[in-house]
Amino acid sequence: MFQDDSHRIEHNPPRLSYGVAATDIDGDGRPELVVTGFGVRNLVMDWQEDGMIRDIAPAVLADPHRRAIGVAAADVNRDGREELYVLNTDTFMGMKRFGDRFFVEEDSGGTTNWLDLFELPANVENPNLSAGRSVAAVDVDGSGAYRFLVANYGGPMRLHQLDERSRVRDTATELGIQIITGGQSLCMLPDMGTYSSMFCGNENDANALFLRTADGTYLNRAEEYGISDGSEQTRGVVAVDTDHDGLLDLIVGNWEGPARLYVRRTPGDPRSPWSDRASARFREKQRNRTLIAADFDNDGRMEVFFNNLGEPNRLFRLRDDGVEELDPGAAAEPDGLGTGAVVADLNGDGVLELLITHGEQEEQPLSLFSSAAARRANYLRVAPLTDFGAPARGAIVHLYAGNHHQVRAIDGGSGYLCQMEPVAHFGLGGRREVDAVDIIWPGGRRRRINQPEINQEIEATP
């Protein structure tokens, strides 16, 4: 499936890397990849005109003296640009020495600089000093003002909101999600109701599924929906339509445990309990870290990529009759110490790039892969935007082409440590026409685009 494109990374020494997020840092309309560094600088990897990928991280974002592992982007101050939350962890669990970073752009005399809000006097007593693992963006009320949800290990979950005076406020308690658990991974489930639901995958404790109630608070209903799975150690998580019924299901990768393929028992019912329908081969134990679902070869069917640590990565294709294991080619990396992975179209050619980070046990370079087969197929990319012009993370996009129906969620945070590009990427194979695209924003607003031209990226506002 994959060919090795790592030669495109101009300077790629061995290092300890963990999480990675795809977001537009330099404002050129294309995503860069923010790669966290554990005791080394964070990177902002940019695909440049000569086809090489170079680090363009400004000094503030590089931040080489902390131990960054998780990262996510979102527009929290409604300025139309995404801010950046970098989660630092210098201990396995409980309290840590160094807090997280909450980076915003600041325009000073025509020069754009980055500022850490946690260093402002109003916020110095409000850093996250629990050993976190993952961070995700969530729009809890459909306003387009995002909050950063943090999964901590041995400390309370946090939900950071920003007010008009740049003060950071933790709203987890008032919304009913300030649980203390072995938090590892996060995933937004945008089709469980009008507003996004939040899945938290845990270690040495049951998983949590927070659903919004009528008064705006949240209740944990994971056990009721059959996905609590308290005996496993959750890592990678992704929301994907596994049975082609137009609803998002949940795939969970466990550390040294079986993978889960949770499918809603009643087709067409968004509130139906889920059951694990993983095949024997799919659920074989893995040392999983990150999990990605994407149409890497643009054939109109989704693949699921398991990024593992210390054993070969694995690749499956979702079919109408179940799953099919594929050869990942160069991306198998049998000696790789995979910690994080992200998918994005870095150069705007309609082909998804897969970047894998490595570390934890020893230093290794970054790896970059793509599928040559994708260049021979058609595609359509849809980028929902908020009223402020920022990526609408948590939106849902449906594509209809004849009897072919696909659905994608715009990623708020994909499982363990990472965050994917904020674009719905649809492979079309040999199809030359799309009947319609439906977009649903957090809060329930909808828009239909009829008969869009293929082989392009569409930006859409409500």
Please summarize what this structure is:
The protein is mainly beta.
Question: Strand count, sense and closure of the main sheet?
Answer: 8 strands, antiparallel
Q: Which spans have pLDDT < 50 for at least 5 consecutive residues?
A: none
Q: Kindly name the structural category.
A: mainly beta
Name the shape in a single word.
Answer: globular
Q: Can you give the mean pLDDT?
A: 94
Residue share in β-strands: 35-45%
- Tell me the total number of β-strands: 35
Give the distance, in angstroms, between the N- and C-terminal Cα atoms: 37 Å
Tally of alpha and pi helices: 2
Fraction of residues in helix? under 10%
Query: What Rg is obtained from the alpha carbons, in whole angstroms?
Result: 20 Å
Give the SSE layout.
Layout: E1 3-4, E2 17-23, E3 32-37, E4 43-47, E5 53-55, H1 59-62, E6 68-74, E7 83-88, E8 101-108, E9 111-116, E10 132-138, E11 147-156, E12 158-162, E13 168-170, H2 172-175, E14 180-189, E15 197-202, E16 208-212, E17 218-220, E18 234-240, E19 249-257, E20 260-264, E21 274-276, E22 286-294, E23 303-308, E24 314-319, E25 322-326, E26 338-344, E27 353-358, E28 367-370, E29 378-384, E30 396-401, E31 404-409, E32 424-429, E33 436-440, E34 446-450, E35 457-460
Parallel strand pairs: 29-35
Antiparallel strand pairs: 1-28, 2-3, 3-4, 4-5, 6-7, 7-8, 8-9, 10-11, 11-12, 11-14, 12-13, 14-15, 15-16, 16-17, 18-19, 19-20, 19-22, 20-21, 22-23, 23-24, 24-25, 26-27, 27-28, 29-32, 30-31, 30-33, 33-34
